[in-house]
Write a structure and sequence with these properties.
The protein is an alpha/beta fold and 233 residues long. The protein contains 7 helices and 7 strands. The chain has one domain: Rossmann fold, CATH 3.40.50.
Length: 233
């Protein structure tokens, strides 16, 4: 395809896999990251290492375009704290949602990304949201993304395509996708250089990557790695 894409790129496993997915498909791919006061802001420091690593795979270096960073820290702080943006114990709320859910976060991400894509002449916007194996966030659902695509296209009078390559993949399938896209090189890059742990812990390198090993993000990542590893043997 000759389309140009913008990838929402946090520095985590899912967004790194989505960046590889886009680089394998499109001739020009740009990235955008968001600082919003997240406890695991260490993920932002992983972004450039991942970008550089992927630039060395196949012909992806010639396809990788500029990176953009949006600072939303003050805006997100103004609308309230959650366990993902403050030193609060991770738990489930009375509504049945994890208190790591940041209301409106992904909706704002997509809106800012579309504004950048509008300015940069990029049609496809790629996000690593997932409804199959996720933490219960309502803004990760397929219906939410479809509604946002309609709203953004109407509001900006463009024909953006919001792509979610992981929507129906669990974490095991996400590791498998990375292997298909970039072989062992990409798997190892994502395993060692991406960051998913909500607590921002990068002190211990586990078989599945860095993390505390106990938060919901680590549990999902670990279980996915273990299932994928078992399927390969």
């Amino acid at each position: 395809m000759t389309d140009r894409a913008l990838v929402l790129f946090s520095g985590g496993q899912d967004s790194a896999t989505c960046l590889a997915w886009a680089l394998a498909r499109y001739q020009h791919v740009e990235t955008v990251g968001f600082a919003y006061g997240q406890r695991h802001a260490i993920e932002l420091g992983c972004r450039e290492t991942l970008r550089q690593g992927m630039a060395g795979i196949a012909d992806w270096g010639g396809r990788l375009g500029p990176d953009h960073m949006v600072d939303m820290t003050s805006a997100m702080a103004a609308v309230g704290q959650t366990a993902l943006t403050s030193e609060t114990e991770i738990a489930t709320t009375g509504e049945g949602l994890p208190n790591t859910f940041v209301p409106g976060r992904n909706l704002l991400f997509l809106t800012y990304a579309a504004a950048i894509a509008y300015r940069r002449g990029l049609r496809r916007i790629v996000a690593g949201v997932c409804e199959t194996d996720y933490s219960g966030y309502p803004d990760c659902r397929d219906d939410t993304v479809k509604a946002m695509q309609l709203a953004l296209n109407l509001g900006m009078q463009r024909r953006f395509v919001l792509e979610t390559p992981l929507m129906w993949r669990d974490k095991s399938a996400t590791w498998a996708l990375a292997k298909t896209l970039g072989g062992d090189t990409l798997v190892e890059l994502i395993r060692t250089e991406s960051h998913s742990c909500y607590l921002g812990d990068r002190t211990v390198l586990h078989a599945w990557g860095y993390g505390c090993g106990t938060c919901p993000a680590c549990q999902l990542r670990r279980s996915g790695w273990e299932r994928w590893s078992e399927e390969r043997t």
